[in-house]
Model the fold of this input.
Amino acid sequence: MPRTKWGNKAKRQDTLAYPHLPCKDKFQSNQIRDSTMSVNEHRPQPAEKKFESLEYTDEHSRTFVFGDEDHTLGNSLRHVLMGRKETRFCGYSVPHPSEPKMNIRLQTSATKPALQVLKDGLHEMVEICDLFDFTLDRAISDYEEQQADSTDERGIH
Done:
C-alpha cells in the first residue's frame, strides 16, 4: 500500500472508512459513490431559472440573475458593460459557491433602459468570442504551416 509524504499508509479509496458500521449515507457506499469526485467537491443543484430580471420602479436600474453561471461570465460581462457609454454602474456577485447563480447590477443613463444595454453587451460578447475563435484558428493554422515547412526543410517526411 502506498505511503503518504508523512509516512503513514494511505487508505485505499475503494474501502469505507468504517467497514464494520452499516452504511447510512448513499455517498459512503462504494457502489453509489462517484469515483470522479474528491472529498471537497460538491455539485450544487441546477438553478430553477436560467435568467431573471428583478423588478424595480426605474427601468434604468436593474439586477439580473443568471442561473448556473459564475465568475467566468460575471467578470467578463461586467467588463464589457462598463465599456459602454450608456453604463453608469455595473457590478456582479456570486452570492455563495453552493448557489448556482450570478447577479449583475446595472445602472444606465436615461438614453437606454438597462435591459437593452444588457442585450447589447451580450451581443458584443458574442462578437468578441467570434473574433477570438477566428484569431485562434488562424494562429493554429499558421503554426501548423510553419511546422510543416520546417519539417520539409530538414528533409523529414
In short: The radius of gyration is 25 Å. The first strand starts at residue 51 and ends at 54. The CA atoms of residues 60 and 113 lie 5 Å apart. Residues 12-16 have pLDDT under 50 and may be disordered.
